[in-house]
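Side project, low priority. Logging it here so it doesn't get lost.
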Amino acid sequence: INALPIGFMDGGLVFSGIMGKYFKYASYAGIVILLIAGIIYPYILILVVLSLLLGIKGPLPMNTFFKPKISMKASWALIIIIILLLGFVPLPFHSTSNSNVAIPNSCYVMQQNNTGNVTVNITVQNHGLNVVPVFSVSPGNFSVERSIQNNMTTTTYTLELITYHYNYTGKKDFNITVNTGTEIFHKMISVYFLKDNKNIHFTNISNPLNLTEYQGKPFNITIDNNGSFPLNVRIISISTSMGVYMEGSDNTTINLAGDPYEGISTHIRPWKNETMNFEAETPGTWKIIIMESNGEAAIVDIHIKPAPVSPPNPKSFNGSQNNDNALNSIHSLYYF
C-alpha cells in the first residue's frame, strides 16, 4: 500500500520525480484504489484520511538536479507498475489455515420465562496478524461482554445475545458472523425459549429432572400428563455425547446424536403417562426437552458418567486339589 503514488507515501515520492506536474492525477487514482479496498478492509480508510490531511499532491519532484530521459521514465514507470500489480496486498500473506473460529455449542436453552440473555463463547485462533475480530448477529442485538487471552494466538470472546425484551417462544435460530480481517466465518445457533409446563410431570419428581446415569446402561424416563387434554409434544435432544439413543414405539433404535433437529413427536393421553427408554454410549452431558408447540416444556438434565469398572474375580485356589494333581502327574511318570 505504501508504494501507491499518493501524496507523501514512498510511492508518491518516486512518482513525483517520474511524472512531474502530472503526478497529482496518479495520486487521485491511488485515492480511488484505497477507497475501493476500504470497502473490503475498512481500516484502509485511515490511510485515505492521512493522505488527505498531508496532501495528495505530494512533495516537489525529485528530479530538480537530474532530469531523466523520457525513455528512462517510461522504463521505470513500467517496472513500478509491474511491482504494484504483483505485490499489492491489503494485508501481509495470511493463509486460511492460520485462522480459525470455534463456537463449541450449537444449542442453548433459556428458561424461567426468558428473563435473561443468552451467552455464547467464541474462540478465535489467529497465527497471523493480531486483528480484533468484528462480530454481528442476525436477528437481534448483542454485546461483547469480555475477552480472555488464552495464549499468544487464541482469544475467547463472550458474546451476549440481547433477548430478554423479546417475546420469543420455542426454537429461534440466530446467525453469528465473525470477521477476522482476512476471513469471514458463519455459525447458526439455535436457542430454545422455554416456559414451565404445568401439565407435564415426572413421577414424584419436580421439573426439571436431574439424573446421573452411566454410559452403556439403558435408563427410563416416565412422563405424566396431569391435564384433562391430550399432550402433543416433541422430544428434543441436546448432547455432548457422541452416541445417544432412544427406543422407538416399534422397538426401533433412534440415533439422537449431533445437532438437534425438529424432534420426535409423541402423544400422551389425559391423565396417563408414557415411559421412554434412553441410552448413551459415551460420557458427557445430555439435555432432553419435552416441548409443546407453545414453548412450554419439561426438561431432563442428565450427567452421563463413565461405566464403572468391575474388579476381576480372583480365581479360587484349592491347595489340596492342586497337590493331588501334582502327585498324580508324578505317579504317572515314576512308579514307586
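Brief comment: The longest strand covers residues 170-179.
Revisit when time allows.
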